[in-house]
Amino acid sequence: MDIVRSRKALALALAVAVLVAPAALVAARSLTAGTTGPSRETVGGKLLEREFQNGWQQAETGGSGGEAFEAKIAAEQFAQARTAPSGVVQPGAYTAAYAQLTGLPTSGGAWSNITRGVKYDADDPEYRDYFSNSSGGAGLVTGRVTGLAADSAGYVYAAGAMGGVWRSSTGGGNWTPIADGLPTLSSGTLELDGSGALWYATGEANTGGTTYAGSGVYRLANPRTGTFSHPGSRVGGTELESTTINQLRFGSNGRVWAATSKGVYWHATSGDMSAPWTVSYVPNPDALSQGTNTNAPYKNIVNDIAVDPTNPNHVIAAIGWRSGDTYNGFYETRDGGVTWTKTNPTGAINANDIGNVTFAWSSNGKKLYAINQSPALLNKLTGTVNSYLDGIYVSQKGIAGPWNKVAEQQKLANAGSALKQSLSGKGYGPGIQAWYNQFLIVDPNDENHVFAGLEEVYETKNAGSTWTTPGGYWNFYFSCWNVDAVYPQEGVGNRCPLSTHSDQHSAAVGTYQGKQYLFVGNDGGIYRRPLDGQANANGQATDWRSLNDGTIDSLQYYAVDVGKAKAGNADNPQGTGDIVSGGLQDNGGSIYRLGGAKMSSNFGGDGGDVLVDPENGCNIVQEYTTLSMRVTNTCASPTNADGSPNFDAWLDYTQSTTFDIAPPDVNARFIAPFVADSKNVDRWLAGGNSIWFQKRGFAIRSGGEWKAVKTWANAGRVTTAMAYTGSTAIAAWCGGCNNAGFERGAAVGVYNAAADTWTWTDLALAGVPVRYIGGVAIDPNNENRLFLAINGFSRRFTEGPGAGVGHVYESTDRGATWKLADGTGATAFPDVPANSIQVLKNGALVVGTDLAVLYRAPGSTAWSRLGTNFPATVAIDVEVGPSGTDLYAATHGRGLWRIALP
After folding, report:
1. Would you say residue 481 lies in a domain?
2. Residue 793's pLDDT band (cuts 50, 70, 90)
3. 229 and 321 co-located in one domain
4. What CA–CA distance (Å, rounded) separates 75 from 93?
5. Tally of domains in the chain
6. In a domain, 293, yes or no
7. Shared-domain flag, residues 343 and 295
8. Scanning 14, 466, 631, 656, which has its CA 20 to 30 A from the CA of 130?
9. Element (H or E) spanning 76, and its range?
């Protein structure tokens, strides 16, 4: 069955690895050559367009869950690149890589963060073309915020998923980064202890996976003025390296507890901070190293831990894998962690269906709340599943219960949710991403006042008897929505107020100017409202404020490309320089003209790869996901004859200036590659299970204009990277892309322009490690000279022992033979996963890695760090600007960066 997707692609989880490779995936496109546009529905009295996005089917879900399944696919594939075929990165890998990196010399000048200080408007009325989400009500946004802490004096601390820690002294806003001196900016959680010290757990852990594992826990005694350092701020040694940390909790007996992907740990909150963490409980100790168990990363996941407010020696934990395992369940210790017991909860909760769980005690210890995700629903093989949420529960007798169920998906849907089934269609109800989206917090002044975060923000003031939805998914489908809405000026009369972004991950309560506020972190950044806030008749809060003022930049890009602002083009965004476009996790496609006052979202949903005409930056191809490509020649800014925004284009596909051009592939990667010939921008290749070719350039108008020129040997093989220069192309693939049965390969294509034909040769790749190929490149001056950039760690991985083995490979005979290009000694390529590679016109190499951008000068074998001022985050894509003199880097957590080439 086709899955009908709503206009917005829902969030992706990038910090989660999944247990097994997906079953056979079938991408079924409903928009094919000859169609006039997506289907129409009348919803909530409004005529809204709903596009048929890529449909995915999988045995475990029977095609249900829609974009929640997309999130799992995205999570899995991001992890595969870094951990397949082995699965476990041992402690010390990140520290070793960081030490190698910082030991390299530096080439070039300083990087500039071009997206920091620029507000990113998700609701800009100038970009309400058909494939836009503008008018949804998220307002100003940034990237995913996974940790929040707030004090009683207006200081707020926010942790970006891969963006480190940010500080505000004004109740949110005017943010300053305070963790850029650390070897990783991957964020698990933030907590303030009783002394006012700020604790930062690295390693994002929405379900305890191992993507972007961290380097441990750090403590800052003076967070209002200080900054984190490594190793000076680190608590303990290397024992928590290469883990993810879901939660830190404090007891009144001077202990801090850590819920990690490798069990339960504790540490003293004072004294010798360098003393190692104490291992308190590991359910499956044999799985702490990979061995022969490909499932090892999923055997010791602690989702949450909580300390009884009335007894610091009584600690509870929710342990288990989201898809279910024999060790899944509730655990507790009553002797400070010496002994742990698995507890069978009583009452309404099913002890045999415990998945991803979040706990929250009331401050007086009288009530314990829990959100539970259901493995049984996640693994359901047939039928439509509207939610993976088992329920929200409360117990007045602690972890053993009896537990009373106070909410489930239908009750939340009827509580003013924008995801109510009668409105949004089956397959996407509240809690469908409960394996990924969860927070739970109790009002410190009222044991019955609770906020729960799933895709939306829910609130109860009577311990769950009734609920409202103050932070809805978006404003579409509500009667107060209107296509010409402008935020945050709405919320008056019958207009919808500003909402939050979707997909909630963190929450905190703090005080600013004597008033208590709720702060929430989600895939769009950070928002706040008064703890005792106001709402309209729909239950929508009328007092949310976006704190994403442009000074916090945790935007998670997948790709970037740049074109010139064409003289006399009325569609050019305001500004003075080139036009920069990018694709973002759950924040669509962005467009920004250098020197402009704002950045806007001109494509909705999840952004993917992007292609821009170097001579005309308003010619853009943006990927939704899985090769769902759209082209515009107007920057996706439809206007009337008088230059005003044409809002009809948002509703009417026939008036749109954006066109669906997706090739009819059967199995593309979630972020699938497409490229233009670097010597002829009208010739394009796109890669899924097949490689597709078209030569109409930006004049293409439908998916039927592509033709398949190469299909991989079986349907499970998918393209991971491509490059195209002149008559030569190179494409890499993986098949069986996860730990078990991992394969990879590549092929070189030669184009005969006179005959309009392609000839492809599969490569043997002798001597190239069997790891994920993240990037490929062709020398523009010598099409026989090819390069591969290999992702994943090599130290204690596949080649070991020895760090820095096997990241860049070079061929001078079109791929017939390969040699290692990592260099040797102090200037060797560090053992860091490589994502993107470019050969400059002068023969120099530039590589984007998980910790930096690296550079190799023409004719040299020595590697250096490119530029100063670049944070230790993921440079996922590097592209040369249209002038050929500067380089752009898309980071997956700290926005877009630019540097003049050496």
Report:
1. yes
2. low
3. yes
4. 21
5. 2
6. yes
7. yes
8. 14
9. helix 67-83
Cβ neighbours for 190, distance < 8 A, ≥ 6 positions apart: 147, 148, 149, 157, 158, 159, 165, 198, 199, 200, 201, 506
Boundary residue ending a domain (507, 526, 546): 546
Could you tell me the pLDDT band of residue 110, with boundaries at 50, 70 and 90?
A: very high
Domain final position from 527, 546, 565:
546
Alpha carbon distance 268, 263 (integer Å): 17
Joined together, the tokens standing for residue 304 give 């949450």
Q: Which residue has the tokens 């925004």?
A: 645
Q: How does DSSP assign 165-227, residue by residue?
A: EEEESSSS-S-EE--TTSS---EEEEEE-TTS-EEEEES--SSS--TT----EEEES-TTT--
Q: How confident is the model at residue 493 (pLDDT cuts 50, 70, 90)?
A: confident
Q: Measured between alpha carbons, how far is residue 212 from residues 165, 228, 337, 417 in Å?
A: 16, 19, 28, 33
Range of the domain at 673: 557-900
Q: Return d(Cα 305, Cα 316) in angstroms, integer.
A: 6
Sheet containing strand 368-373, edge to edge, reads 357-361, 368-373, 389-395, 403-407
- What is the DSSP secondary-structure string of 279-301? EEE-S-GGGGS-TT-TTGGGSS-
Report pLDDT digits (tens) over 276-295: 999 999 999 998 876 666 67
Q: Take residue 189 and report the two structure tokens written for it.
A: 């959680």
Same domain, residue pair 318 and 380 = yes
CB 589 within 8 A of CB 601: yes
CA 93 to chain centre: 22
Dihedral through CA 798, CA 803, CA 809, CA 810, nearest 10? -150
Closest CA to 370 of 418, 334, 408: 408
Q: Are 321 and 427 contained in the same domain?
A: yes
3-state SS, 793-809, equals: CCCCCCCCCCCCCCCEE
Same domain membership, residue 437 and residue 394: yes
